Each structure stands twice: as structure tokens, then as C-alpha cells.
Amino acid sequence: MRFLNPSAFFFLVLIPIVVLLHFLKLRRRQQVVPSVQIWLSAFEETQANFPFQKLKTSLPLLLQIFFLLAVVGSIARPALYRSLENLDRAIIIVETSASMGARYDGKTYLNHAKSESLGLINRLPSDCRVMILDTSFPPNMRSSFTSDKAKLSSVINQLSFQHTPSRLKTALSIARNYQTPNTKIYVISDDFGGLLDFKLKNLQMIPVGKRLDNVAIVNFNVTRDLDHPSSIIVFVVLQNFSDKSVDFKVHLEIEGKWIDDKLVQLPVGKKPKEIVFKLEDAGFDGHVVTARLDFDDALLIDNSASAILHPIIRPQVVLVTDRKPILLIQMLRTNPKIVFNQTNIRDYHGYGDIIIFDQWMPTILPAGNVIFLASQNDFSMAELVESKSSAHVINQDNTHPILRDIPQLNMEVQRVLIGKLPVWGTPLIDVDLGPLVWYGVWNDQKRVVFNFDPFDLQLSSFAILIPTAPMLVSQCIDWLIPPKTKIYPDLVRAGEPVKFYLNSEGEKTISVLSPNGGNADLKATSIYTNTSQVGVYTVLVDDQPVGRFVVNLLNASESNLTKKQVLTQKVLEEVTSEEQMGYVEIWREIVLFSLLFLVVEWIVYCVRKQN
Q1: CA atoms of 162 and 518, how far apart (whole Å)
Q2: Does 454 fall in a domain?
Q3: Residue 314 and residue 343: Cα distance in Å, rounded?
């Protein structure tokens, strides 16, 4: 036996209190009598009033103590380690990610998962209460605990797959919150690769699907030639998830009309291959360009990808400085994506899309996004002081777009500004003294702060680190570039959010028309998160279209249908053989037992009172 809440035993301190109250319970009044010979029975009762005498003969006291012990024991949640074959609760998690749309034998993976789920529900005991979760974005509780098998079957039949990546770990974390020792979790999925190190008791994995060949578009981008803005360049990255080479055509379309095609040969292997289309602009701004594979395979949603064409818009980047940081100026002047200007502190008057303040911070910040370089004086965003010792880089967040593909920095920095960051600040690069570079968004303004002078070679070697320094500056500018359209970004992967910049126009009603015809109203937010279907979405204001955005799959993990089910079966056998035993709580039985003690004590009290 094991107690799941041992802290409840602190309530045992109530036992001495019960005993003390029992000693003090007897109260008699004095009475003068002529003789005490006829009061022998009264004398014996008086003897019993002494503590130890009364303790030996008081049955109600013993019953009260046993009742208190039973109550405390039930609060401590005792559990027995025994077989879990006769569970009274179960949680079924059904995979509904994009790969579940793959087809074989005339059915999708999801159809096979539904069949497994319905069979499992029929095999469970009739009184077993079942909860159903899916792995949508975010994971959804399709049914709370119920033993109504007709309702559970109806919920399973209504499941549909989304075009989003798997959220299986998130769904398991939700299930863990509802799991008790006598609850078993069943996971029905086509891929358990991410769960091999997931620690969860009473977990059984049921695989569906089989090894299938598939070809997919795993990356897609449309840009313009910066030297020739009328030239449109389309990049399509393909990947072959099969054991044989394949030949097919890739069609390029604009608003569904054929523009060009290329013959592609993808050899055996999983190495991506990039193909490039070039075309001249013929009034295509705002149009949807689509790359489509002329190939029939197991999964169709990754055979096309789209984007919306835009003209080149170069943001104005202003460097405000009273010195000449030559290396920084050279990096900005050679960036073809921006229009660069330089001014001194005295002549700056709040203009620019991106402003770089070199060792200075204005009293009133401009509307554009900003970069601060070693702004110690009058830096109102955080209390920073200059360190007296050097610092070394110990960590950097390479998941953020600013540091993506940036090599690990290995440098020593002199004169670092250290201090506590504001609530909106997040470190990008850390040294042993604190954050070295950090970022944040406040009042819709993006901010990047360097707590050192990155272009003073006497303080650090950052400016001459090639290609680290130019890459970091360029990617920092890319992250700070303001949205080009009212909808940004307008090219996302399934499950990623989209933000609408419509407040300045005073619109009242914003709605989104999805590819499947659904219409969602946005009343309290300008961020749209329900990008679970691949295709073109239309944003409407007062029922009038104001723009569009595109959702693509572009996920190699979901497109890879050559998953090794043999490994999954092995995991299944190990888990099911090890997790057939578990702790089952028995506090309900103890509560009933304590109530029985209470009834017996009351009966004894009544009998004694009558006698």
C-alpha cells in the first residue's frame, strides 16, 4: 500500500484533543446524603472518572478514535499496487495532424485510426468512463469522461484531420492532468518517434498506417530581383520520401492560370532539391502564385504551395550617431533590402522605419522600430550600470530569427552594461554577467538592445567576426522591418498566427473567410490563429475584402510517410508489458468504513443513555 497524500497524517494531532474532551465531559453537582453505603455504584462511577480508568472502559471513545483514524486515512489517499485490467477510466488520444490525410487501401490514416478507436471503445468495460482528445492546434477535448458508448462512437466518427503538425506531446500533457492511478491512456497515431523519452505511466500506443512513398514541397518562397524589380523569382524546394527516383513536372500558376512548368528528376534519397522559376511582372502585384506538382502520391496537401506577390518596398534605416562606426556603416550601405541614411544626434527629428541609436536615447521615441547600441546615459527602459570586469559569452538563442544560423559566439567583451531587464525584455545573447543582447516588443514597437559597443574593436572582436557580424546585423534589420501590407505575414505554415494591421483605418468588423468556406469573426483581437487548413484566406472588413494570406504545409516531418512501424510495435510491446500494474486508490472504501464506525458509536451512545 502507498499513501498518495501523506501530509494528511498531520491531522492525527486531533486524537489527543478528542481524548482530552472525553475526560472533561463528565460534570456532577454536589448533594448531601445521610449515608454513602447505598451509593457504592456511584463510587465506582467516580473511580471511572479518573483518566486511565475511564480510558479502559469507554467504548465510545475508542469508536471515536477509530473514526478519526479512518477519516485521516481516507484523506491520505491510500492506494494498492495491483493489476489495472479492470480500469474505470480511460483517455483516448487520436492523431489528427496533416499526415493522417495520407491514403492507402482506399482509406486515410484517420479512417484507420477511427476503426481502431471504435474497436477499443467496444472492448472497454461497459462502466468505463472515457475521455477523447485529438492532436489538433491546439489539442481539443472532444468528449469529457462518459460511459455512453453511443456518444463516444459519434465523437470518433466526427473527427477530421487538420493540415497542422502533430501536437501529440501537448495532448499527452493535457491527459496527464486528468490521469489518476486507475486511468489508462491510449494513443492512436502514425508516428511515436517523439514519445520514446516521454515518461508517463499506464500509456499504450496503437499504431496505424504503413510505409508509403511521397513527394513534397518542403519550402517555398517568392521574391523579386533587387537589381531588376520587374523580375519575379520563385524558389521551390522538393524532397523525395521514397526508395525510388521519380520524374514529374512542376507547374507554375498565377490565380489558377498556367504560366510555366519544369521537368524534375528526384533521385532516391531524402536530400532536398531546389528549382527556380523566373518570370517578368505583368501587373501581378496582389496575385496568388502557386507551384503545383503533377504527381499522384499518398498525401496531396503537400503537392502545392502558394504565395502572394508584392512590389519591392525598401524600409528607411536611419543611423543616429555622433561618431563614425565605419564597419556598421559599410554593413548597412551594402544591404540591398533597405534605404540607408545617416545623421547626427542634433539633426535627428524622429523619422525612419528602423532607427539605430548609437550610444544615445531620445526623450521621446519615434514610431519606427529601434536598435540601441550601448545606451547607458538616460536609458529609461532598464537600470543599467557598467561592469568593471570583462565578460564571456555563455549562451545564445539560435531559435530566434535574429540569431538563426549564427555560429556560436566565442569572444570576450569589455565594459558590459548589466542590470535587470524590463518585463517585456528577453535575452538573445548572455554573458556570465547577464544579458549582452536582448529584444522585446512594447506598444507595438520592436526593440533590440546591445548592452555593449559592438563596433569598438578595443572592447570586443564582434565587428570583425566574419560572417557572424554581417549576418547578425542583416537578420536584425530583417526582424525589425515593418509589415509591408495590412496582413503580416501573408505567407505562413499551417498552425502559425497572422496579424492584421487595420486599427488605423477605424474598421469595426473583421472576419476571415477560410479555404473551406468557413467565416470567422474577430471581435476582440487582431491576431488570427486558426490557420489549420492549407489554402488562400480572405480578410474582410464590413464584408468587403481588404487582403489575403496563404497557408502552406511545408513540413518535412508530416510529409515523411516512410516511418518505421517496427520500432513503434516494439515500443508498444514494452509499454503494455510493463504498465499492466499500478496503484489503485481505495479511499472510497475507507470512507464507507468510517461512516460505519460513526453509526456504531451513535448506537452505543443511545444504549448507554437509556441504561
Answers
A1: 14
A2: yes
A3: 19
Q: Report in angstroms the alpha-carbon separations of 359 from 355, 376, 387.
A: 13, 7, 16
The amino acid that residue 285 corresponds to is D
C-alpha cell at 318: 536611419
Pair (60, 102) in one structural domain: no
Neighbours of 438 (CB within 10 A): 22
The DSSP result for 241-308, as a single string, is: ESSS-EEEEEEEEETTEEEEEEEEEE-SSS--EEEEEEEE-SS-TTPEEEEEEE---S--TTSEEEEE
d(CA 155, CA 145): 12
The last residue of a domain, from among 460, 480, 500: 480
Residue 353 maps to which CATH number? 3.40.50.880
* Residue 399 within a domain: yes
Q: Is the dihedral of CA 189, 191, 194, 197 positive or negative?
A: positive
- For 2-22, the pLDDT digits (tens) are 776 777 788 888 888 877 777
Name residue 239's amino acid: Q
Per-residue pLDDT, 180:
81
Residues 547 and 570 in one domain: no
In degrees, rounded to 5, the angle at the alpha carbon of residue 190 between the alpha carbons of residues 189 and 192 is: 75
Do residue 248 and residue 308 come from a single domain?
Answer: yes
Cell 468557413 belongs to which residue?
518
Are 20 and 71 part of one and the same domain?
Answer: yes
What's the mean per-residue pLDDT of the chain?
A: 83
Instruction: Tell me the pTM.
Output: 0.63
| 276-295 tens-digit pLDDT | 999 998 888 889 999 999 99
Q: Name the phi and psi angles at 298, rounded to 5.
A: -75, -30
Considering the domain architecture, whether residues 322 and 384 belong to the same structural domain is answered as yes
* Residue closest to 448 by CA, chosen among 416, 490, 478: 478
Cell numbers given for 72: 485521516
Parallel/antiparallel/unpaired status of strands 103-104 and 107-108: antiparallel
Whether residue 34 lies inside any domain: the answer is no
Long-range contacts of 323-329, Cβ-Cβ distance < 8 Å, separation of 24 or more? 323/358, 323/359, 325/358, 325/455, 327/455, 327/463, 327/464, 327/469, 328/356, 328/358, 328/454, 328/455, 328/463, 328/473
Which has the closest alpha carbon to 541: 555, 562, 558, 521? 521
Instruction: Compute the 3-state secondary structure of the chain and give helix, strand, coil in percent, each to the nearest 5.
Output: 25, 35, 40
**Within a 10 A sphere around the Cβ of 361, how many other Cβ atoms?**
17
In this structure, is residue 151 part of a structural domain?
yes
Instruction: Count CA atoms closer than 13 A to 303's CA, side-chain side.
Output: 17
The radius of gyration computed from the CA coordinates of the chain, to the nearest angstrom, equals: 36
| Enclosing domain of residue 127 | 86-211+563-579
Q: Are residues 303 and 333 in the same domain?
A: no
Residue 538: pLDDT band (50, 70, 90) is very high
Whole-number Å distance between alpha carbons of 515 and 301: 13
Distance CA 440, CA 449 (A): 9
β partners of residue 189: 207
Same domain, 322 and 382: yes
Distance in angstroms (rounded) separating the CA atoms of residues 452 and 416:
5
Contacts of 447 (CB under 8 A, 6+ apart): 369, 370, 371, 372, 381, 439, 440, 441
Number of domains in the chain: 5
Half-sphere exposure in the Cβ direction for 57 (13 Å, CA): 12
